[in-house]
Amino acid sequence: MTVYLPEVDGLNALTSRTFVVVDFETTADEGGPQRAVELGYVTIRGGRRAGHLSGHALVRPPVPISRASYKVHGIDDARAATAEPFATAAVGLLAALADPTAIFVAHNAPYDAAVLRNECALAGLPVPDRPVLDTMTLPAALGYARDGLGRQPSLELLAQALPVTVPSLKYERRLRPDGRLYHHARDDAELCASLLLALLAHAATHGTAVAIDELLAEHSPGTTAHMTGSAYIGRRATDDPYAFDPIHLARHTGALLDPRHVTPGELDDWLDRAQECARMLCPLLQEECAAFDLSNPVLFTQLDAMLPALTEPGQRATLLGVLMRALTPQQRREVQWWRGVRDLIQNAPRCEPKHACPDCRSGQPCPLDVAHEYAAGSLLVTPAGEISDDRLSALCGRNGDIEAWADTAPELAGHVAWLTMRQYVRSRQPQRASAVLALAETLRLQRYEPWLAIRVAEQLTGRGHLEDALDLLASVTTPVTTNPAQVAAASALARLRTYAAELNAPTDPRRQPSRGGAPAGRYRPASRRRPNPYRVGDYTGGAAPGVSGVGTLASPRDASPDEDQALVGQVVPDER
Q: What is the DSSP secondary-structure string of 498-523?
């Protein structure tokens, strides 16, 4: 297997040191660290493989090989019984790492470095202290971007993106029951070495890295003896009971499923891993589902059925984040789905700082707070990806769907009303938009949808019902959630409270009514009147998360003030 390496000065500078590319297959030691079962390593000098410093060996672990580990690499106790202990099996690897210019390289390198460190310590051997490079995060560090690659791609996915030829099967590799090959340390190390060289060649030709020492200073997560970076996704507390199991991460290194040619065994294995991801709050589940076909009702239902069993903080939200992004216009499946999960969402434990779902950790709204918005956004779009007047009329017309859902799915009905009203404004149909708002107010949907509450509060303020407007906004901002619509309602409530306080403040004697008894400002020209700074609504602010990317709906940030005026009018007087 060869990889074309352009002869450029930049590549020479990036390959001036020795790379020792390592892969371990392991087994879990209950209550202790992962123990090596197999090791493979490839040494690269001057940008070329050094065959006499590359090798492979089975390792006899001092503990039984677990069933979960066997499912990954296919090595059982009988096969490992004939192998050497780590101190003997790793002689060649430790000799390669003895080179003072050596750099330790692996895919998900902090994990393999931890295995090396732990095995050396348990065997009474000195731990090689070498800089570390991680090919899982190196593409992002070098600015190598491909659609669907993600920030931390699997070994096989990265090989397909570069592309790099998968190594030939030099060793006996049996098929797993699901039809896929077991992992093999030497072949995975060979593939990782090819990926490293291809990435360095890309960096040299595109100028994203200058020299290997600079790359280490910016990217290395530490050394084999002293790791400073996280082993997995982000930085997690050491006392977090949901820290990722290395065996679980190993399951992600397989190729993504092809929904057109998936076998029953592969599907069962993937569903089992999906449930494991939800329990571990693993963000890689969303990346896999983005590339997999969840529009299949059977597969969607199987994932949905896992929700009740997820009872710890963050778990239900992790799986919910996948399900809500899989919603597409599918003959009202959204309504049935929302009715089924509404109680599960309301009863789900909230995410906590140390037990947060991937959306919360990335600063996005929690799926527990915005799942209904995704369902509502897909309801407005036809299977063809369009929004038609017939669709809108069926939702919000006389005896339409919104009235039918008002009792059983009020959050969904409220957000559908808001999106429909906004769509009418954009299509220059303000009368229809006002009719939808009036229908929503009649059904009391403003108690469930903060965007509607802001609109209704504007109207109440304009009619002089200031206390009712305050009560309405207070009701939709308690309890506090991560929904951006609620944040906008809380801001509107603060402004309205300030406005109410100024109205009730003692009258300034210098601003007594004029001869006619009207406020002095009433007789000022419109150009000299100071606008009321406490106007409640802001139709141009705050995006509805469930709408972004669904059909032709867009963020409400592109709505104009004219559209807002056409919808709700000027309801707060300009004079104070």
A: HHHHHHTSPPPGGG---TTSS-GGGG
Give the DSSP per-residue string, 401-445: HHHHHTTT-HHHHHHHHHHHHHHHHHTT-HHHHHHHHHHHHHTTG
By DSSP bridging, strand 35-45 and strand 55-58 are antiparallel
Pairing of strands 48-49, 35-45: antiparallel
> Looking at the chain, how many residues does it have?
576
Cβ neighbours for 238, distance < 8 A, ≥ 6 positions apart: none
In which band, very low, low, confident or very high, does the pLDDT at 90 lie, cut at 50, 70 and 90?
Answer: very high
Evaluated on CA atoms 477, 481, 485, 488, the torsion sign reads positive
Q: Residue 456's CB: how many other CB atoms inside 10 A?
A: 26
Q: Where do the H-state alpha helices sit in 9-162?
A: 9-14, 67-73, 77-80, 86-89, 91-97, 109-123, 138-141, 155-161
The dihedrals phi and psi of 316, each to the nearest 5 degrees, come to -65, -35
Cα–Cα distances in Å, from 381 out to 474, 544, 547, 553? Answer: 32, 15, 10, 8
pLDDT of 179 above 90: no
Q: How far apart are CA 79 and CA 73, in angstroms?
A: 12
Its pTM surpasses 0.70: no
Other beta carbons within 10 angstroms of residue 508's beta carbon come to 7
**Contact (Cβ atoms closer than 8 angstroms) between residue 283 and residue 319:** no
- Which of 273, 107, 294, 303 has the alpha carbon at shortest distance from 178? 273
What are the helix (H) ranges across 149-306? 155-161, 185-206, 212-219, 246-251, 264-280, 284-291, 297-304
**In angstroms, what CA-CA distances link 39 with 8, 28, 392?**
33, 15, 61
Per-residue pLDDT tens digits for 127-171:
899 999 999 888 877 877 665 566 678 787 787 777 776 555 444
- E strand or H helix that includes residue 42: strand 35-45
pLDDT tens track for 496-508: 888 888 777 665 5
Cα–chain center distance at 506: 52
Query: Minimal CA–CA distance to 290: which of 421, 151, 420?
Result: 151
Q: Cβ–Cβ contacts within 10 Å for residue 531, how many?
A: 10
Inform me whether the pLDDT recorded for 546 exceeds 50. no
Looking at mean pLDDT, say which of 219-233, 274-288, 515-529 comes out highest. 274-288
The burial of 4, by beta-carbon neighbours within 10 Å (0-12 exposed, 13-18 middle, 19 or more buried), is given as exposed
Asked if pLDDT for residue 273 goes beyond 90, the answer is no
> What's the pLDDT tens digit per position in 101-124?
999 999 988 889 989 999 999 999
